[in-house]
Amino acid sequence: MLRLTLAALLLATTSAIPSAGAQETKEIGHVNTAITNLGLTRSHRVVVERFEDPEVRGVACYISQARTGGLSGMLGVAEDPARFALDCTATAAVEIQPGARRGDRGEVVFESNTSLFFKETRVHRFVDEERNAVVYMAWSTRLIDGSPYNAVSVVPVR
Q1: Which residues, including other chains, have CB under 8 Å from residue 34's CB and lie 6 or more apart?
Q2: What three-state secondary structure class fits 57?
Q3: Sign of CA dihedral 94, 156, 26, 11
Q4: Mean per-residue pLDDT for 97-122?
């Protein structure tokens, strides 16, 4: 039981884990959506984070995600709802690096654990060379049945 609690605490402190090659995320802010346990534990909240795609220079993405509070949320054993929004914007001249994966499978540029076991929010990048745009899609994984929740953001390459 002690090992499970320690593992939960470790996961709770590393909830946003960038994928290989992705840069660190930065929490921009949060709002509390419900106070739990009379304010003695962390409240349910919506958190806004920023990340940048290392293979597409000049783009910043912002993702907001629901995070479960309460004692289970503090310990990292709660399952966060698969609810999120995504917006990506050009912050400078957009440059797609040669190493950026093309094709219909895209490439993962962001991952965030949303439960102790087998559930994540991921952001995939797709390059639409025909329309000269970069498409980012956020979606939620689950071990067995997946999730239909998703969000899309498009950044034109000029």
Answers
A1: 43, 44, 69
A2: strand
A3: negative
A4: 81
Integer Cα distance of 147 and 152 in angstroms: 15
Q: Is 144 exposed, middle or buried (0-12, 13-18, 19+ CB in 10 A)?
A: exposed
Q: Could you tell me the end-to-end alpha-carbon distance of the chain, in angstroms, rounded to an integer?
A: 55
Please tell me the predicted confidence (pLDDT) of residue 33.
80
Q: How many CB atoms lie within 10 A of CB 49?
A: 20
Q: How many H helices and E strands in the chain? A: 2, 8
pLDDT digits (tens, 9 = 90+) for 124-156: 999 999 999 999 999 887 665 667 788 999 999
Nearby residues of 148 by Cβ (< 8 Å), 6 or more positions away: none
Q: Which two tokens stand for residue 97?
A: 């690096």
| Rounded-to-integer distance, Cα 108 and Cα 19, Å | 7
Query: What are the boundaries of each domain within the chain?
Result: 2-156
Q: Does the predicted model carry a pTM greater than 0.85?
A: no
